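Please review this pair:
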Amino acid sequence: MALKAVHVSDVPNLDQVPENASLALYSSRFAKGVEMGRAASRAPKFVVIGHRGNGMNALNSSDNRMRAIKENSIVSFNAASAFPIDFVEFDVQVTKDDCPVIFHDNFMLSSDNGTVFEKRVTELTLSEFLCYGPQKEPGKEGKSLLRKTNGKIVEWNVETDDFLCTLQEAFQLVEPSLGFNIELKFDDQIVYEPDYLVRVLQATLQVVFEYAKDRPIIFSSFQPDAALLVRKLQEKYPVFFLTNGGTELFYDVRRNSLEEAVKVCLEGGLHGIVSEVKGVFRNPGAVTKIKESKLSLLTYGKLNNVAEAVYMQHLMGIDGVIVDLVQEITEAVSDLIKPSTVGEEESFAEENGKRESKPQFSQRELSFLLKLIPELIHG
């Protein structure tokens, strides 16, 4: 679909994002650490983002942490805010009556007398959407909520459940210093008409403009036309293009490599790329090209729950990571990446009778690792 068919001339321009905007400009949560009672001056510039809040739900995982708190919920967002992260990432879809809601899956699954019913989120009204899962009203029972996982339909059981929420509620109920990485969610199997994209994006932007206030915001989307369009519709907040980085192929070639992602960003004036981390490790040379293009680079994926993989990305010049294990990775980032004052590390080591465990790589060793990693990932 051609974006030139979309008429956005009537949409007023907002404050412009500075040219070559850095993520650091939008990671200001700890800039006022004294007032907030946090060690702001020592926070690293490497950005950590909580995936769907405090982490996604993997209902078939043997790791209980992946089933601790309901993903994409107010409880999860506020749980993540207890740790030194910059943003939480979450998925926004728009209901049939134009209300932006937070939910990842394309379909709501529920059962009644043993029969499973499936409803597309975007074909529900807001009231129909909110009928699923726990209810705010005491004593009221909502429809059961199921999830399809690896081809199996399972009960969506977590240790700490929470009701479904709207984007407006997230702005109103989540710690105000916490940034929002708003993923504009669309179905990979649908070719969307420009008019539909405009309607959905304008409904989302209306809520953001009214309730964001000073909260840092990043938009992102796997849908290239949506990413380009939200950049045209507003100039206040940075827009990132999400990509699998070539780890999965799609009909739309713009989604099939980091090189194509760079083209999308440069042609549309986007601010950066969010790639599956394996796509970056398989093609580490792309990081240099992305940086030379003055684009920011974030990653997502299971490997971002491994501290060593996160540290390697820091060494490669990647700007930040989206993670599920928020507590563990923020602690690792603090230990491995956090800048120290001169002589502080030596003093600490002397006091504790041990040396720091932070890995040290020469340029030659780093070059070797960058050549080795693609082989390991492909293997």
Observations:
- The chain has a mean pLDDT of 85.
- The radius of gyration is 21 Å.
